[in-house]
Amino acid sequence: MTTTTAERPRTRQRYRPTELDTVPAVNALLRRLGLGRLDAAATTAFGGRNDNWAGPTTTGEQVFVKTVTPLPDGTGCPELDRSLSFEDLAARLTPASPLRSPGLLGADPAAGVMVHRLVPGARSGAELALDGDFDDDLCRSAGWAVGTLHGLGPVDGLDTGEAPLPPLSWLKALPWSAVQERSMAQIAAWQLVQDDTEVVDALHRLRDLERTVPLAPAHCDLRFDQFIRADEGAGELYLVDWEEFRLADPARDVGAFAGEWLFHATYSVFAPTEAGAGRPEESTAGFGLTHEEIVARGSASLRRHLPRIAAFWQGYLECRPQALALDAGLPERAAAYAGWHMYDRLIATAESHATLNPVARAAAGIGRTVLLGPSAAARTLGLSAERAPHTPHASNGSDHR
Fold first, then answer.
1. Which residue in 75, 228, 230, 331 is a FRET match for 63, CA 20 to 30 A apart?
2. How much is the pTM?
3. How far apart are alpha carbons 362 and 357 in whole angstroms?
């Protein structure tokens, strides 16, 4: 019997959380907030590099708790400070704003703990993309959110330090501490970058450009899983995880969103398909494809995903119609950052591997092409230099305030 799309189980990327007894500051903060403590038996975790817990407390409040790491000398917690600076900025938003983030219930800067309301029926953008539910309309909504964010400047008091990626010193050689913490596949991925002088030069130029362009409040760590949609993927869209929030080149966020779709399209080339008559199952999983088959699948996958990028860009310009007048080079830099994002994602996904698989090498090749030819790539990706027509949502931005 054929299973229809509606009958397929939804993707759920949930994990067993860290034992709460090992992080006493979590329940200590919840008790100070009058929320009791987390119900460990009913708590789960989302993906990410930081420990987190999602679920009910003993008082019935549904919460999402995350920890970040304070500085080792005890002088502060920059990641939490940046998150709180976004909360201050978000207070300027109207209730109708397309930029939403779950409500902050409290924080402990000394321990690096934050508590937010849990989005009901939350599904991450990564889950939605895997299920084919991150459609054009949702991408446009994501563009509204990011366009609104970038339109909130200029703002005093934001972190003005350079965003950590790409780390320029690592383009020459990895520090020994980083080598010890990374898999062989990640080291091999970094070597792909370091051995390519054209890529290294392009990344240096991109970082140099950031010092000369109009900056804006930017997320600086934009990925599919930073978007959350309520009500099992049918409700409002939220943007989360503000640890890298700062004043930066807005092209970083636009390029990261485009890069996410490029990376998703690349992985789709190697996704398993139904076995054809007389064709072994392992071949249809992608790793036995011929060069011609890879090219054909890749072209088809890219055609399917390009409208998502164009929809995001259209929504972005609808909420930030001044963007191109302020910064004509935004589309080209965004394309270059999309190229870097391909390298960044392949390095991250290589964490649990001993060698680079065909997907990673394909992603590196596409990233290189986009990074070294950003003008042509911007046109291909639909990041046109044409201004979008004004819509009511554009009033939620603040470039003109």
1. 75
2. 0.90
3. 9
Q: Are 148 and 248 in contact (CB under 8 A)?
A: no
Find where tokens 């051995």 sit.
195
Residue 218 CA to residue 208 CA, distance in Å, equals: 17
- Over residues 115-165, the pLDDT tens digits come to 999 999 999 999 999 999 999 999 999 999 999 999 997 678 899 999 999
- The pLDDT score that the predictor gives to residue 284 is 41
Helix or strand or coil: residue 24? helix
Pairing relationship of beta strands 123-124 and 216-218 according to DSSP bridges: unpaired
H helix count then E strand count, the chain: 15, 9
Q: How many CA atoms lie within 13 A of 173 on its CB side?
A: 3
Is residue 52 helix, strand or coil?
strand
Using one digit for the tens of pLDDT, what is the confidence trace for 202-252?
A: 999 999 999 999 999 999 999 999 999 999 999 999 999 999 999 999 999
Retrieve residue 289's tokens: 């494809």
Name the range with the highest mean pLDDT among 88-92, 181-185, 252-256.
252-256
What tokens does 209 get?
A: 């450009």
What does the H/E/C string look like for 361-373?
HHHHHHHHHHHHC
- CA 390 vs CA 142, 266, 317, 321: distances in Å: 17, 34, 8, 7
Q: DSSP readout, 179-214?
A: HHHS-HHHHHHHHHHHT-HHHHHHHHHHHHHHTTS-
Polymer length in residues for the chain: 401
Residue written as token pair 């065909």: 358
Say how many C-beta atoms besides its own lie within 10 A of residue 139's C-beta: 26
